[in-house]
Specification:
Layout lengths: L1 H14 L1 H6 L9 H19 L6 E5 L15 E6 L13 E3 L14 E7 L9 H14 E11 L19 E3 L11 E4 L2 E8 L1
Parallel strand pairs: 1-2, 1-4, 2-3, 4-5
Antiparallel strand pairs: 5-8, 6-8, 7-8
Length: 201
C-alpha cells in the first residue's frame, strides 16, 4: 500500500510539482540526521527568525525532492539554489537560482540573508578544499552581521581529503550554542554526518 501511495505521489509531482506541494505531498528522507534537521534545527530557526523583521530571508543550498517542501516549514522568505539545472523543479518557485554554492556572491547581494542552510554539499559534490573555502567566504559575505549559518557536512576520509574546521575561511565564523529546547551544543554528529551552528565574526 505504501509503495502504491508513493507512486501516486510521484505521478502527481510529475504532472504538477506545485499542485503537489499545495496538496501537501512530501518525500521525506527517513534518516536520523534529516529528522534532526527538519525538527530540532527548524524549530530553533523558526524561533530565531521570529525575532527578525518580517522581511527575514533564508537561503537553502542544494535542492532535491527530499527538501522541496521546506519553504512551508520555515517562517522566512525562502530562497533555494542548486548547481544542477534539472533540480530547479525542486526549488522554491520564483526564488530559485541555478548556480554554484562556491560562487554565491555572483548571484546575491552582500548581507542579504538572515539564515543560510548548507546541508549535504561538502562530501557530496563540493569535495575540494577550495570549494569549501569559497562556500564559507560566500556565506559570510551574504549573511547579515547577526545572521546564522547551519552547516551540515561529511568530511570523513571516504568523502574528502581535508577537515572542514581546518580550512582557512572557517575562521570567518565562530561556533555557537543555540540553547533552544534540545539544542545544547554547537555541533551534532550522526555517524559520518555533522551539523554545526556558525555565526559571522
Amino acid at each position: 500500500m505504501s509503495r502504491l501511495k508513493n507512486k501516486l505521489k510521484l505521478l502527481l509531482f510529475k504532472i504538477s510539482p506545485h499542485l503537489a506541494l499545495a496538496l501537501g505531498v512530501e518525500f521525506p528522507l527517513k534518516s536520523a540526521n534529516r529528522s534532526f534537521l527538519e525538527n530540532e534545527i527548524f524549530a530553533f530557526l523558526n524561533a530565531f527568525l521570529k525575532q527578525r523583521p518580517d522581511s527575514a530571508r533564508c537561503l537553502f543550498l542544494g535542492t532535491d525532492k527530499r527538501s522541496w517542501h521546506y519553504p512551508k516549514l520555515l517562517t522566512a522568505q525562502f530562497y533555494t539554489m542548486d548547481i544542477e539545472p534539472k533540480k530547479a523543479i525542486y526549488g522554491h518557485r520564483g526564488h530559485h537560482t541555478v548556480g554554484s554554492a562556491a560562487a554565491l556572491t555572483q548571484h546575491y547581494e552582500p548581507h542579504s540573508f538572515d539564515v543560510i542552510i548548507a546541508n549535504g554539499l561538502i562530501g557530496f559534490g563540493m569535495n575540494q578544499q577550495p570549494d569549501c573555502d569559497a562556500l564559507l567566504a560566500g556565506s559570510h559575505a551574504l549573511l547579515k552581521k547577526d545572521g546564522l549559518l547551519v552547516l551540515g557536512y561529511n568530511d570523513g576520509v571516504e568523502f574528502v581529503n581535508f577537515k572542514v574546521r581546518e580550512v582557512a575561511n572557517y575562521k570567518l565564523f565562530e561556533e555557537f550554542v543555540p540553547n533552544h529546547l534540545a539544542l545544547t551544543s554547537s555541533q551534532y554528529e550522526f555517524g559520518d554526518h555533522m551539523f554545526v551552528f556558525l555565526k559571522p565574526v
